[in-house]
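Justification of resources, computational component.

The compute hours requested in this renewal are based largely on the per-chain cost of generating structure records like the one below. Each record pairs the submitted sequence with a full structure-token output. That output is archived, and it is also reused by downstream analysis tasks.
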Amino acid sequence: MKFGAVACALVAGGVALTPLALCAEDLKPEQITVARVPARMKRVYVMDPVLPHMVDGRVYVLDAKDLTLKGMMESGFAGMMAAAPDKGRVYVAASFYARLTRGARTDVIQVYDDETLKVIDEIPVPTLRAQALPYRNLFRLNSDGSMIFAQNATPATSVTVVDVASKKNFEAQGPGCYGIYPALANPLRFATLCGDGTATTYTISSDHASAQLKSSAKFFDPQSDPLYTHAEPTRDGYVFLTYSGKLMRLAVDGDTVAAQPAGDAAEGQKGWAPGGYQPFTVDAQAGVAYLLMHDKAVEGSHKAPSVEIWAYDLNAKKLLARSPVAGLIGVTLSASEPNTLFGIDGVANKIVRLAVDPQSRNITPAGEIKLGETAALIEAPR
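The structure output for this chain reads:
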């Protein structure tokens, strides 16, 4: 508000201090405009469940070039998100309560236009989904975007399979299994990790109304060295990471999951281990994983923020570089710029942009923005 307009409100002894004619001129309402996020803008999405007031979650939209804030989408209580850049859509699973913090619960998948950031549709879903931090693999699109998979926990575990076009859904049972990993080539298939060290593959019927399940052989020990549920897609499957720093490749397109070792990033590095909520990312083209690592690791420190970022060659199975980058609890690779990383600094509540030297694989700061309260997921899909 201009100084003259402020003065219009000042009254001394019942007499206005500024002429009324001047007040009328200064109090002309501003013209409010609404801008669209440019269609070609490379985006970074940051999901913040705002833990101090969780009914008010949000997804921030940033320009990947300079991390300027372009807009925000609401995500209700304990929301999850999945972006479909090719369709110009962002899907956000959210819960809402009739009395804000209590009362009847309604669960929907909100469909946002990624330019206007407005809800253009809603898909009702059962009130079964896991109300957890927004881990990527609790809410996923299938390979062609025709279906959405939502992890349930009541606490019994299952997956809600949603047909986007018809909005119909069904519950695929999966006792003891958690995390969703869509097949990369088969839109009717996804896998889940199970608490007994196996994986279950779901093959969905052609009418999207049921699924057949098939378990794999045991390939990891959930007691001595669990897998993070976070996984990174590669050309032929996913890369997983254990709490101790071992990497594993999983092929999920077949009717059962096939696993093979992909190296040990912490081998010979006593006291070091990965940590965070989104603890690593992978450059599938170069075959390099970037891991958030911390020293003085102990049992229970698997979510500790980074002290360094390590670059690890998945093909040669060797450590390439160690860069001092502290405070990160999440990291992702830009889908359009393979030498750019984006991270969540959970200590300083900021989002950082990091540059990767393609030769040495050393990592240096390249920008930041103070943002959010408890950001927990970062994605850079295009």
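Residues 1-33 form one domain. Confidence is low (pLDDT under 50) at residues 1-7, 9-17.
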